Amino acid sequence: MSYSREGRSASPRGSVSPERGRHRSRSRSRSLPRSRRSRSRSRSVDAANPGNNLYVTGLSTRVTSSDLEKYFNKEGKVVECHLVTDPRSRESRGFAFVTMETVEDADRCIKYLNRSVLEGRLITVEKV
């Protein structure tokens, strides 16, 4: 049995694709609540979070994790510093998470380091 363009009808593809398109859009819309759900899970964890986790944005791509740790150590003891990087290029994606030892250290960082300049970039510091 030979398949040729004349032997095939163009309409089945056209009639099937709108249905598939509808299903795809539904599945895509379902993926958004999943990401929201994961955020809501982290928010429920925030109830147990003592408030010493900081979200830092506006970072230069040149900033390293050790640079960030040194910068935040000026205002208190840093327990952990996680600079988010692109998996392929390993370049900074411009934001990080810094965990301070105490809530007071975290509050001091927000007070003195929020809207400060690091490596020529204005950074923001806020609680997670």
UniProtKB/TrEMBL annotation:
PROSITE patterns, sorted: RRM (PS50102)
RRM domain boundaries: 52-128
Sorted UniProt keywords: RNA-binding
Pfam families the UniProt entry points to: RRM_1
Ribonucleoprotein in keyword set: no
Region (Disordered): 1-57
Annotated InterPro entries: Nucleotide-bd_a/b_plait_sf, RBD_domain_sf, RBM, RRM_dom, RRM_euk-type
Entry's Gene Ontology molecular function annotations: RNA binding
Segments of skewed composition (Basic residues): 21-42
Protein name according to UniProt: RRM domain-containing protein
Species this protein is from: Rubroshorea leprosula
